[in-house]
DNA sequence: CAGAAAATGGAACATGTGTTCAATTTCTTG
DNA sequence: CAAGAAATTGAACACATGTTCCATTTTCTG
């Protein structure tokens, strides 16, 4: 992807600055995907967003796919933290259905661009094998998270994850992002509860 | 989108030929999306695929979004028939779980490109409002189909639909398209059956 | 301080893009 | 058959794209 990290990269100011710039490019790419979708990802676009010349993007990543892979991985890591924080904040209700409905609603309302970007990158992985490991890591992380608070049955965990993906996708094409009450019936049916 | 259909369009050979060409462009667009994804959709690309000059595409559709809307709608209609045929063919088993697992497996194995294209167009609707009605029509059709053979609870129907979407998406980023046995546990958990 | 390594950024390249335009062909109608 | 409507198409437009090249600047090492 870039120059192989030498054993003494923490003291070299040149490499440190380079690493910072590399991160700036990744962050800029995520912002571009959020705003304009994957269609908006180009060398010049993300370079402008990051405030660097286009040649710098080529210097740090040898292809546009390289940038996307790095971005998807990065995004996965930071999203975990955000999700965890959101999950903590939302646990004023004690029922799982209400809590999750609230969480999903927030994802498509307060973080619509981010959520959308996530699924676009996700789907892109279906076409570009290079992105697949990053996308699957996403599933693993989410599965682990569900496993903590949910059923032990692997099939149930898989179904739950799939349902959430599907619900979010449907929510993303709604004319305006739905509130928790839209998600509740489906979630309730999923765990055999009353809404 | 095109010239408004005059009351006597069935006798005018010029308009008839035009309509045929319009359909050829839509079909070509679907093939392009299947092969190269939405990223591959351009005037020149679909023109080459359809065997017409690029100017013809502009003549029949006033924008690239117009082509996509028409394609999504078309694709929706033809997919209904194919799905129904597939559903009929697959009813040798009598259990819903096995039948559906088999059907999903076929969608990602024998019709991978088509399924993928469907979801790409679907997700694109999240960014381009013009595509949303077509995308929502998809949900309605699928919901109707599920309603015929499934539960009466609206929440359950919604959950089922969402789960299938999620399962298909996960299947699409697998290294190779999974067989029915991969879908069965999740589907079983969904309807509280043993796999 | 001199030399080397890394990073930077401006310019240029060939190619692809959406779209417009004017001329031409195809077909219908009076 | 002649007039006109509809369809067709090649050429051209201005611009965006991925990528390469090379001169310059920054930073570290001996």
UniProtKB/TrEMBL annotation, chains A, B:
Record keywords: DNA-binding
Keyword DNA-binding found: yes
Domain of life: Bacteria
A GO molecular-function annotation: DNA-binding transcription factor activity
Domain HTH tetR-type stretches: 19-79
UniProt-listed InterPro entries: Homeodomain-like_sf, HTH-type_TetR-like_transc_reg, HTH_TetR, Tet_transcr_reg_TetR-rel_C_sf, TetR_C_31
Residue segments, region Disordered: 1-20
Start-end of DNA-binding region: 42-61
A Pfam family that the UniProt record links to this protein: TetR_N
PANTHER family: HTH-TYPE TRANSCRIPTIONAL REGULATOR RUTR, TRANSCRIPTIONAL REGULATORY PROTEIN (PROBABLY DEOR-FAMILY)-RELATED
Stated name of the protein: TetR family transcriptional regulator
Species in which this protein is naturally found: Actinopolyspora mortivallis
């Amino acid at each position: 992807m870039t120059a192989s990290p030498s054993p003494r990269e923490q003291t070299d100011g040149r490499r440190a600055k380079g690493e910072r710039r590399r991160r700036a490019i990744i962050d800029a790419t995520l912002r571009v995907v959020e705003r304009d979708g994957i269609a908006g990802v180009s060398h010049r676009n993300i370079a402008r967003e990051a405030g660097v010349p286009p040649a710098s993007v080529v210097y740090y990543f040898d292809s546009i796919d390289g940038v996307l892979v790095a971005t998807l991985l990065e995004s996965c890591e930071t999203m975990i933290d955000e999700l965890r924080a959101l999950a903590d904040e939302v646990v004023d209700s004690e029922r799982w259905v209400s809590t999750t409905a609230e969480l999903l609603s927030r994802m498509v309302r307060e973080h619509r661009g981010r959520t959308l970007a996530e699924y676009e990158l996700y789907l892109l992985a279906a076409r570009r094998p290079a992105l697949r490991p990053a996308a699957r890591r996403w599933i693993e992380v989410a599965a682990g998270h569900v496993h903590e608070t949910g059923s032990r049955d692997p099939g149930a965990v898989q179904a739950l994850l799939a349902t959430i993906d599907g619900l979010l996708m449907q929510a993303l094409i709604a004319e305006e992002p739905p509130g928790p009450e839209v998600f509740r019936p489906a979630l309730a049916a999923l765990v055999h509860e009353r809404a």
